[in-house]
Structure formats: C-alpha cells, structure tokens
Amino acid sequence: MKIETHLLHSFIEQFPSPVFIKNPDGMYIGCNQAYSSLTGIARDHLVGKTVFDVNDREMAEKCHRQDLDLLKNGTRQRYKWRLALSDGEIRDVIFEKAPLLDDNGRITGIIGVISDVTEQQKAENALIESNERLETLLFMLPVGIILIDYETRLIMEMNPYAVTILGHSKEQLVGRKCHACICPVKAEHCPIQDPEMEIDRSEGE
User: What is the DSSP letter of 203?
Assistant: First the structure.
C-alpha cells in the first residue's frame, strides 16, 4: 500500500494543474506542488487535515457535500467555485473530481484537479460588458440599424428606430429573410454577400 501511495504521489507531481487526494474520511493525504503554489498551503500542512481545517466555512460545506455524493455514487464531478487563497485573493476555478478505486472496484478515496480560469472569466465578463454597452448604444442611435446573418440572410435584431422606419412590429420582422421585407433586389442577387454589386440608390417618385 505504501508503494502504491508513493507511485500515486509521484504521478500527480507530474501534472501542471493543481491536484489533491483525499481518503474516504475526507482527510487530505497528498497534493502536488502546483496545488501548494495556487493555494499557498504546503503539503506537510495539508496532509491529515480536512477541508474544514483549510478553507472558509461556505466552501468547506460545499466541498464536503460534493465529496459525500461522490463517495456514495462514484460519479465524476465538475463544478465552478470562487476560491479564496491564503493571501485573501479570490480566484475563479473549476473543480474536477473522481473516485479512486481498488482492485475490487471499491472507492478508496478521491482525486481532484483544480483549473484556474480567472483570466478566462475576466475576458468573458469583459466581452459581456462590451456587448451590453454596444447594444445600449445601438438602441439609442437615431438611425435604423438591422443585424442580418451573413449566411442565412435572416434578420437577427433591430433597434427601435428601424422598427419605426419599416412600419412593422419587431416580432413581424425578426427571423424573416431580409430580401422578403427590406431589400428591393431579388434573393439571388444579395448586396450583403456580393459587396461589388451595384445598387440603384435613387429615390422613387
């Protein structure tokens, strides 16, 4: 058993991502250097402790419930969490956990991997904020703006000014082909897909 444990510890040390191991009682029995680097908790300080000894109450209770479910059902888990580090920094992470099994298929512990997705989450949040600002701007402009899918030529969105110009409700227009209700040219001659196409822009009398 000591040989198997040593091999397991040697194995997880090769992982670039933070990895931890728990026994069926929820006690940490090992981790790799990447885990210590992320959390600020050295392996010697972690081993023999439970999640309640090294984390805040909210996170400890969440992890404990997940561990009990994993030990009972033996199913892999994946969930997001905001991890508070020892220096007070908050990181967005994803926990992925799986059961450790013996030769008879019995659960002997839990192995978990932590993925730090903080920068990815920041980029996603920035994109959402940027899109929200753009949407607000488009809807405030005193010009008609219509978003059309390049491939399908379906109307995807339009601002209130465009709705007023066209004289139809938004519900009547969104989802329809643009050439059916906006563009005067035939469907097979689309100025969106053919930028070199010449369009008669003269006003009718």
Answer: P
pTM: 0.61
Amino acid code (one letter) for 36 = S
Can you tell me the distance from the alpha carbon of 182 to that of 185, in angstroms, rounded to the nearest whole number? Answer: 9
3-state secondary structure of 155: strand
Phi, psi of 47 (to 5 degrees): -60, 130
Q: How many CA atoms lie within 13 A of 189 on its CB side?
A: 8
Which DSSP helix (H) or strand (E) runs through 70?
helix 57-73
Q: Which amino acid is at 168?
A: H
Q: How many CA atoms lie within 13 A of 66 on its CB side?
A: 22
Tell me the pLDDT band of 86, cut-offs 50, 70 and 90. confident
The pLDDT-based confidence of 167 (bands split at 50, 70, 90) is: confident
Cross-strand pairs, 177: 154
Which residues does 18 contact at the CB level (< 8 Å), separation at least 6?
31, 32, 34, 35, 37, 38, 39, 113, 114, 116
Which has more confidence, 53 or 136?
53
Which residues on neighbouring strands pair with residue 146, listed in sequence order? 158
